[in-house]
Every structure is written in C-alpha cells, then in structure tokens.
C-alpha cells in the first residue's frame, strides 16, 4: 500500500494557489491554501458531489492520484485503510500541493 495523501495541516497561506485537475477530463481549477476543494471548485463553476460539507456523509469522497491535502480536523470520516489508498473528503480537504484527482462519480 502507498502512503495516503494527507499531511499535517500547517497554517494555510492564503497567497498559495494550487492547480487541481481531474484525471478523466480537462476540468481544472485553482485552490488557495485556505479554502476547501469543494469551495474552490464551486468558485470555478465546477460542481462536485457534496451534501453535509462537514466530512461525515462521504458523498464527496474521491481519490487523489497525485499531490497532498490537509484537514483542519484530526479525524475526517475516512477509515485508515481508505486514507492509505488515497481517498479524501474534498468538502473538508485543503490543497497543500498541486493535485490530480480521480473524477468524482456523477449522480
């Protein structure tokens, strides 16, 4: 198993902007270090599946192909095995590098 994409959450740098793209299509957006991936996508006009926006419902769950994210809470609603496999919750995840995401399931 590969290590998960999660890193400790240092104080976000609002000046940092990271490129986030989906592996299956040409959609991409910029995410600053102080906004969640779902919020950054919405700002760019990209709708990601979401419901609770607090990390409990798992509607937004997707996999990171490359890059790192951080959380402001210690235990987001993922199993340790899921984290190790690269699964994240974009509604509460913050980019800490450029990211390539597996395209979320469309509902």
Keywords:
three-stranded mixed beta sheet, five-stranded mixed beta sheet, 107 residues, 11% helix, single chain, alpha/beta, Ubiquitin-like (UB roll)
What does it look like?
The chain is α/β, with parallel strands linked by helices. The protein has one domain (about 15-100): Roll (Ubiquitin-like (UB roll)), CATH 3.10.20. The protein is built from two helices and eight strands, in the order E-E-E-H-E-E-H-E-E-E. It has helices spanning about 35-45, 80-85, and strands at about 5, 15-20, 30, 60-65, 70, 85-90, 95, 100. A five-stranded mixed sheet has the order 3-2-8-4-6. A hairpin with a 5-residue loop joins strand 2 (about 15-20) and strand 3. The chain starts with 5 loop residues before the first strand and ends in a 6-residue tail after the last strand. The mean pLDDT is about 85.
Terminal-residue CA separation: 29 Å
How much β-strand is present in the residues? 25-35%
CATH topology: Ubiquitin-like (UB roll)
Average pLDDT, to the nearest integer? Answer: 86
Query: N-to-C SSE series?
Result: EEEHEEHEEE
- Gross CATH architecture: Roll
Q: How is the biggest beta sheet arranged?
A: 5 strands, mixed
CATH class wording: Alpha Beta
What structural category characterises the helix and strand content?
Answer: alpha/beta
Show the helix and strand layout.
Layout: E1 6-7, E2 17-22, E3 28-32, H1 37-43, E4 62-66, E5 69-71, H2 80-84, E6 87-88, E7 93-95, E8 99-101
Parallel strand pairs: 1-5, 2-8
Antiparallel strand pairs: 2-3, 4-6, 4-8, 5-7
């Amino acid at each position: 198993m590969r290590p998960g994409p999660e890193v400790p959450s240092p104080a976000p740098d609002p000046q940092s902007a990271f490129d986030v793209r989906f592996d299956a299509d040409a959609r991409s957006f910029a995410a600053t270090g102080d906004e969640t991936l779902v919020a950054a996508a919405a700002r760019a006009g990209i709708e990601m599946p979401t419901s609770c926006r607090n990390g409990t419902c798992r509607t937004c769950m997707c996999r990171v192909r490359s890059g790192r994210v951080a959380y402001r809470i210690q235990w987001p609603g993922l199993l340790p095995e899921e984290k190790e496999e690269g699964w994240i919750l974009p509604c509460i995840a913050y980019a800490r590098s450029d990211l390539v995401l597996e395209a979320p399931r469309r509902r």
